[in-house]
Amino acid sequence: PLQPPQPPTNYLSTAEGFTEAFNQHGCNPPRHVTLCTTSLLENNKCEWLAEAGAVYGVSPPLQCAKRDSVEECMTAVKNKECDCVVADSNWLVKAERNYSLTPILHEANPIIDRMTIISAYVRRDAGINKMADLRGKRAAFPLLDGIAWHSVLRYLTNKSCNDIAFNFFSEVCALGLEKLDLKGALSKKYTENCGMRQDDDVNGEIQALRALVQGKTDVVFINKTTYNLYVNRYIQKDWSKNLIEIVPICPEENPKYCFISWSNIGHVFTSNNLTSLRRHEVINVLTKLDQYFGDYPHKSMFSMYGPYNHKFDVLFHNNTKLLETNHMFKKHPYNNIPLNFEQSLNASECYISKFTTGFGVKMAPSVLLLILSLVSSIIMNK
């Protein structure tokens, strides 16, 4: 005779050894994937994400560790105290060069305007119409050693390795150059003329744009997002009240998109010498969390990329659509967009050779090259 229906777990429990195997899942000692955070707010969001993942059975579980800065987090990942850290594209070169870290996942978005897009912007009345017209002009960058800095260096050295990058400009200004404690004429050439200083309330992107608007520099290399904030009057400052017409300068190689580089919004960095098994484990945990709590049509109890405590871009960027591995660069639409920054890190020997050793504590040789170029320029102009 037919047996009455019963729950699957009751049926499976009759199988020899099933109960013991079911109750002994997991590793001993227990394993975790430890994500490093840089603020109390980030750490709180990470712990919420870890709890939500535990409810959904994500294994090994996510664990959170707090440090006081991205530098400290990268050091912790390098020293195997943590497994991974999330940082934006300004850290791509520094992570590899200074900490031996590599991005294994990217905060991706297929909409171009929501990526990190670095373009050259000038005032329309400056009479600058093409990249070659920038030679001998004053240039400002949001950050020394950041993505805009390296994008321009890559672009210029790819044009001609003999004309090494910053021979190109008469003056160079970037947030972070003031830390080199330059004196006299060099100080004016680098830090005083454009007025960029460390300021917790005003980031380097806004400061570089301000220098252009105020006529203290001729060209700025900034993210398109910053440009859009200005033209749409979202920057509420005295210097931005009267809009100055600013236009991008398109590279001859990229007239369609008109930028010198693009990259993903952010990246998950791990140690270069992580075992393939552990690397797969980190990728698996974070992509599982992305599937459950990412930017998908279904509703979940927690949003991985949404605002947290009424703050934007906490831990992950709000414009993130999903986490992608390096395989993304072979897929549409990314494989059809030129001048990707992540892939160019190893594409040019001329470009990479400038960053393989340190200058001072953590300065790349490109900085020394830049300084020597301007010293010779100053001497020749006297």
TrEMBL record:
Span of domain Transferrin-like: 33-350
Pfam families for the chain: Transferrin
GO cellular component: signal recognition particle receptor complex
InterPro entries, alphabetized: Transferrin-like_dom (IPR001156)
SUPFAM superfamilies per record: Periplasmic binding protein-like II (SSF53850)
PROSITE patterns the UniProt entry points to: TRANSFERRIN_LIKE_4
GO biological process, one term: protein targeting to ER
Name under which the protein is recorded: Transferrin-like domain-containing protein
Organism of derivation: Pectinophora gossypiella (Cotton pink bollworm)
